[in-house]
């Protein structure tokens, strides 16, 4: 299972890196390949590149905000979950993503 | 980034979140990392209005990016009794790490330190260590050690 994603929050200072770390750690704990790009005050950190996307099963947007570069994900399955939930329960978020993927309930990014 | 013993306040008593934020703004001015404490207070409030900065295990990370700030800084407050903060796990907050950042973003290295500290807070054992600090110098040592690891 490979999940790529983006975290972004209002100030872009604290919750953005927090969510990214929490989700990537949860990925290690659950045995999923997870890479989260941060869009915050430091600009783009840990950018999701084209080669990251080739075999990605799902795109997770950990934010309620406008995300830059969504066109990268055209044709990919995208799930949006608010950033607080990703910080509070990162493992549950990843499990939910996998569940949605299996049930085919996610949206395909147009 | 400015963080030493003068930025650590233990055994504090506050009635509510707003009083803590007011204290942070006041200290920011006293510590000479802010020119106008009113703007800092308003910035902290504005950020809280987006969604609460209460995290888990009684820790909150209020923060503010403001033109009133002249240096990046951290203010650490430990409360005698936890207060309501709208935390992710609904726990009352007794440990506050306030992050203050100048709007003029010349100090990228300090932003990286604060971002790394925030990320580090997702680690349960780090949160526990932080909560177990009872002396000012322990808090300073723990946080400054994190910064060296950036």
Structural features:
heterodimer, A: about 110 residues, alpha/beta, 6-stranded mixed beta sheet, 4 helices, 6 strands, about 35% helix, globular, B: about 150 residues, 5 strands, about 40% helix
Structure commentary:
By secondary structure, chain A is an alpha/beta fold. Chain A contains 4 helices and 6 strands; from the N terminus they run βαββαββααβ. A 6-stranded mixed sheet of chain A has the order 3-2-1-4-5-6. The longest helix of chain A has 16 residues, at 15-30. In chain A, 45% of the residues are buried. Chain A starts with a strand and ends with a strand. In chain B, strands 1, 2, 3, 4 and 5 form a 5-stranded mixed sheet that branches. Chain B is globular. The relative contact order of chain B is 0.20. The mean pLDDT of chain B is 93. Chains A and B meet through α1 and α3 of A and β3 and α3 of B.
Tell me briefly what this model is.
Chain A is of the alpha/beta class. Chain A has helices at about 15-30, 50-55, 85-90, 90-105; strands at about 1-5, 35-40, 45, 60, 75-80, 105-110.
């Amino acid at each position: 299972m490979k999940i790529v994603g983006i975290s972004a929050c209002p100030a872009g200072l604290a919750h953005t890196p927090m969510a990214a770390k929490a989700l990537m750690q949860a990925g290690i704990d659950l045995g999923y390949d997870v890479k989260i790009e941060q869009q915050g005050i430091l600009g783009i950190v840990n950018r999701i590149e084209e080669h990251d996307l080739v075999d990605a099963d799902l795109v997770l947007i950990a934010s309620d905000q406008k995300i830059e570069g969504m066109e990268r994900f055209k044709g990919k399955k995208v799930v949006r979950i608010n950033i607080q939930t990703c910080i509070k329960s990162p493992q549950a978020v990843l499990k939910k993503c996998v569940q949605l993927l299996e049930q085919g309930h996610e949206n395909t990014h147009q | 980034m400015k963080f030493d013993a003068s930025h650590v306040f233990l055994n504090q008593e506050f009635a509510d979140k707003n009083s803590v934020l007011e204290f942070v703004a006041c200290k920011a001015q006293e510590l000479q990392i802010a020119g106008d404490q009113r703007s800092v207070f308003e910035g902290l409030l504005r950020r809280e209005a987006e969604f609460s900065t209460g995290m888990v295990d009684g820790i909150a990370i209020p923060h503010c990016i403001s033109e009133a700030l002249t240096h990046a800084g951290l203010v650490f407050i430990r409360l005698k009794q936890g207060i309501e903060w709208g935390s992710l796990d609904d726990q009352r907050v007794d440990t506050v790490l306030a992050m203050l950042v100048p709007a003029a973003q010349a100090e990228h290295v300090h932003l990286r330190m604060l971002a790394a500290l925030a990320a580090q807070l997702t680690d349960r054992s780090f949160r526990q260590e932080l909560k177990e600090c009872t002396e000012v110098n322990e808090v300073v040592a723990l946080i400054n050690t994190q910064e060296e690891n950036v």
